[in-house]
Amino acid sequence: MNNMSDPKILVVEDEPSQQELLVYNLEKAGFRVVATGDGEDGVAAAQDENPALIVLDWMLPGLSGIEVCRQLRRDADTRQIPIIMLTARGEEGDKVRALDTGADDYIVKPYSVAELLARVRAHIRRANPAEVGEMLEHGDIKLDPSRMKVERSGTGIKLGPTEFRLLTVFLSRPGRVWTRESLLERVWEHDLDIDQRTVDVHVGRLRRALKVNGLADPIRTIRSAGYSLDFED
Q1: Tens digit of pLDDT for each residue in 28-66?
Q2: How far apart, in whole angstroms, are the C-alpha atoms of residue 168 and residue 164?
Q3: CA–CA separation, 26 vs 180, rounded Å?
Q4: Are residues 14 and 113 in the same domain?
Q5: Is residue 119 part of a domain?
Q6: Rounded to whole angstroms, how far apart are CA atoms 75 and 54?
Q7: Do 137 and 212 have their domain in common?
Q8: Does the pTM exceed 0.85?
Q9: Quick one: angle between helices 196-210 and 161-172, nearest 10?
Q10: β-sheet bridge partners, residue 178
């Protein structure tokens, strides 16, 4: 069974048989998968779902994969999500164009499922160190996912499980503005018993814990938007 620790993959592929194959193999490998067959829907899903990685087909109806990639790279909220582009176009010039547009990788159809999964895992490891238990650091805050330990300026901080997950999300992309809805998705997985006010309560607890020894609050409230971990004024 998938759980909130399983990385989420967004598949944007318009051919039903190819989409079904991708979804089946990614879920079998332990990933959560969201799939769409349309470029515009792909952009919206990337913004709404905050996936760990996007598998993006080049040839899509309407908005092409190249244009999807270009739009995602212009958006601060999706700019850092790894993108693997799939295409039947094997010319070197096409590969260069995809990479120049912002794709992180390029696989020509027909492809090996094992190779695709290996590349997916590699890009997630590089982009989301918390997924594989690597230390997260920003400013004077350090979080060790494997040992469930947090410290700030060398002082250990005790956090509850929810606050620990919140801080992990914040540290995964420092400076990003997280809406309450996106935090609900990442930390509580849209639990129907949880409302957005609960997010505020737990962010407040995390703030108090991080202000150990009188240190400044590193979490900014963005009016009408959400929260951001950012040490800048």
Answers
A1: 999 999 999 999 999 999 999 889 899 999 999 889 999
A2: 6
A3: 28
A4: yes
A5: yes
A6: 15
A7: yes
A8: no
A9: 80
A10: 227
